[in-house]
Amino acid sequence: MISYVTTNDGKVREAREYLADVRAVDFDYTEIQAAELGPIAAHGAREAFAHVGGPVLVDDAGLFVDGFDGFPGPYSAYVEHTLGVDRVGDIARRRAEETGETPRAQFRCVLAYCDGEGFAATPDAVDYGDRRGHDLSAEDRGTASTTDSIDAGDVPVKLFAGVVRGRIVEPRGEGGFGYDPVFEHDGSTLAEMSAAEKNAISHRGRALATFAEFYAER
Ligand SMILES: O=P(O)(O)OP(=O)(O)OP(=O)(O)OC[C@H]1O[C@@H](n2cnc3c(O)ncnc32)[C@H](O)[C@@H]1O
User: Fold this and answer.
1) Per its record, what are the GO molecular function terms (predicted)?
2) Which of 82, 93, 127, 203 could make a disulfide contact with 109, Cβ separation 3.0–4.6 Å?
């Protein structure tokens, strides 16, 4: 049984489509300040593992707007709760109008898995999947996933990353959660998609699919 450690029900709904053997655990782990999602998720996974005492998955995600050098990125939750999704969308679109650029963005998700055991390969560098995402950016249709491991610190953690590219639009749709209404991928906002449609292309869906493969073999 894996404990999916989050306070966000939307994440758990999406995770259940990939993992039968999962329970939601509402544990508020420390979110360290970092420019990237990987270290935040890894730190959270170690803390959650110490709390739960069994296999845990911590999910750190964010919206990275191209014209803002990736902001709000790791601060997406804070910005959602302070500015709000609609205002983030307004600002991104207004800036794009001024510069004549398309308001491109990407969602990234990093899942950090920890079960107290080691992993076979543990390279130092953590790849969040954005390189591959950028390769596909021309049509705003790219999705990608990667895996990596980091063993800095006492307990090994394995990371699974996913990315989806798209553009910021006026809010549309009732589904999903968070920034989904203002993020369009291939003609639909994520909030206009069913959970299965979103999972098929989303940052979290890619990361979960890669994790599910790994877990099935473990
Ligand atoms: O930390 P936990 O408890 O898991 O829950 P959280 O909602 O605070 O999650 P994050 O720290 O990962 O913050 C991510 C922010 O990005 C948003 N977000 C994450 N995944 C998303 C998705 O698939 N679609 C839209 N918004 C998403 C989410 O609403 C938050 O504002």
Assistant:
1) nucleoside triphosphate diphosphatase activity
2) 203
